């Protein structure tokens, strides 16, 4: 079973305005509401690609009820720890450019964290745990490490999609898959990139540090894949971006869906890129039909 763990889920409120004027009343021309948070997005895309998963994490209040209802409508298994307070609302403003305002999320107590860790004690070596998204400040700063330690005890695979100092700490535990975008990779090595050659150098370094599979996404410029032996590159398919929120999460889901169904690394990487782009070109997350249409445009180059 694949478990996704979202410590700080969100209701994503997508607001389209023709022209955003700060300090004035703006009227939306379109609004959309989705269950969000990186792990939840991974679960939703996995389902669309025909792979079951269980969504774990913390949930609370009327916003939390909305998320559970939506996931149940999509037949996605949930096993959240309920917390007092409301799950956050993340505002995604679309007006030519994309501006995001992510909320803080509810306060959690140590007993909530313990309840989540307890759920993970049932993991087995056939399981995959996807740790995706930011860590709310009320949780212990090493909560992801505690989760990884449970997964490692069970010999389950760990997938990491987070950023900043948390990502740095987690890499030492040698996850099965990490998917930083190119900016997160630069931040990790306290550098900045001026070319794709530089991205390749640092992506390989991540694989050498012990991350089994590394995908570095570069939005419209496609992505790299690295392991200790090989480097792959794929350009992104061309299309009109409608909502890139969740494109990175879709890559994680696409890779896992293909990999766990026995596809080769090259095929899993191509599926990952097609899934990211299919989401970027959709209002909501990608559909399987769209991924399989776009994969015909993905050429994987092996270095
Ligand atoms: N403009 C675009 N054109 C085509 N494909 C895109 C575009 N933007 C994103 N994608 C697809 O989505 C993948 C992930 O994008 P990106 O690098 O922005 O991830 P991310 O920063 O983790 O995204 P997010 O945090 O918004 O989920 C890319 O590798 C690509 O396949
Ligand atoms: O604040 P975090 O946890 O870093 O990111 C949360 C978030 O921006 O990530 C998802 C897209 O990847 C959205 O569904 C959600 O709103």
UniProtKB/TrEMBL annotation:
GO biological process terms held by the UniProt record: carbohydrate catabolic process; D-tagatose 6-phosphate catabolic process; lactose metabolic process; small molecule metabolic process
Pathway: Carbohydrate metabolism; D-tagatose 6-phosphate degradation; D-glyceraldehyde 3-phosphate and glycerone phosphate from D-tagatose 6-phosphate: step 1/2
An annotated Gene Ontology molecular function: tagatose-6-phosphate kinase activity
Domain Carbohydrate kinase PfkB: 10-283
Catalytic activity: D-tagatofuranose 6-phosphate + ATP = D-tagatofuranose 1,6-bisphosphate + ADP + H(+); beta-D-fructose 1-phosphate + ATP = beta-D-fructose 1,6-bisphosphate + ADP + H(+)
InterPro entries per UniProt: 1-PFruKinase, Carboh/pur_kinase_PfkB_CS, PfkB_dom, Ribokinase-like, Tagatose/fructose_Pkinase
Enzyme class, broadest EC rank: transferase
Residue ranges the record marks as coiled coil: none
PROSITE patterns: PFKB_KINASES_1, PFKB_KINASES_2
UniProt function note: Catalyzes the ATP-dependent phosphorylation of fructose-l-phosphate to fructose-l,6-bisphosphate.
Protein name stated in the entry: Tagatose-6-phosphate kinase
């Amino acid at each position: 079973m694949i478990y996704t763990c979202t410590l700080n889920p969100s209701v994503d409120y997508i607001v389209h305005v023709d022209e955003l004027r700060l300090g004035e009343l703006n009227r939306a021309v379109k609004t959309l509401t989705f269950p969000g948070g990186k792990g939840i997005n991974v679960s939703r895309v996995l389902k669309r690609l025909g792979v079951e998963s269980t969504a774990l994490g913390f949930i609370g209040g009327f916003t939390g009820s909305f998320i559970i209802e939506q996931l149940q409508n999509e037949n996605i298994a949930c096993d959240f720890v309920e917390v007092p307070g409301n799950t956050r609302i993340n505002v995604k403003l679309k007006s030519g450019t994309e501006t995001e305002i992510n909320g803080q999320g509810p306060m959690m107590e140590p007993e909530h964290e313990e309840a989540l860790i307890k759920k993970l004690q049932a993991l087995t070596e056939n399981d995959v745990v996807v740790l995706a998204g930011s860590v709310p400040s009320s949780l212990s700063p090493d909560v992801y490490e505690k989760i990884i330690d449970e997964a490692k005890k069970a010999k389950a695979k760990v997938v990491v999609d987070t950023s900043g100092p948390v990502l740095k700490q987690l890499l030492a535990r040698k996850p099965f898959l990490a998917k930083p975008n190119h900016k997160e990779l630069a931040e990790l090595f306290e550098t900045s990139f001026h070319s794709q050659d530089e991205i390749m150098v640092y992506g390989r370094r991540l694989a050498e540090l012990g991350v089994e599979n590394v995908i570095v996404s570069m939005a419209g410029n496609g992505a790299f894949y690295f392991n200790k032996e090989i480097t792959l590159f794929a350009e992104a398919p061309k299309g009109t971006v409608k909502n890139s929120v969740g494109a990175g999460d879709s890559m994680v889901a696409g890779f896992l869906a293909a990999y766990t169904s026995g596809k080769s690394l090259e095929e899993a990487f191509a599926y990952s890129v097609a899934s990211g782009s299919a989401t970027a070109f959709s209002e909501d997350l990608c559909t399987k039909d769209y991924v399989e249409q776009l994969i015909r445009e993905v050429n994987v180059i092996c270095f």
